[in-house]
Design goal:
Strand order of the largest sheet: 1-2
Number of strands: 2
Order of helices and strands: HHEE
Structural class: alpha+beta
Shape: flat
Oligomer: single chain
Length: 88
């Protein structure tokens, strides 16, 4: 693998880690880190470098957000069970 290719991968990985929230960063790292062994003050990380697939874009398609349609107190629904009716 050429040095320029490794540098491009490192740059992409850095961008993903900088722009993602904690949960996404954790899932991303777990996708290619196989094992971490800590020996005193030294850590050995076993990983497989993610590789680009030729002809596939690295652009991420955004998913529309799911907005809460309720008010400040949430969504109001009334469930009335025959055996239970809230006091008036």
């Amino acid at each position: 693998m050429k040095l320029a290719t490794v540098q491009a991968y490192a740059s992409d990985l850095r961008n993903i880690l900088e722009e993602s929230d904690f949960t996404d960063r954790k899932a991303f790292l777990r996708s290619f880190i196989k094992k971490i062994v800590v020996e005193g003050e030294r850590a050995v990380v076993t990983y497989k470098l993610p590789q680009r697939v030729p002809g596939v874009s690295n652009e991420i398609e955004e998913v529309l957000p799911i907005d809460n349609v309720g008010g400040a107190k949430g969504i109001r629904t009334t469930l009335i069970y025959p055996a239970f009716r809230p006091p008036l």
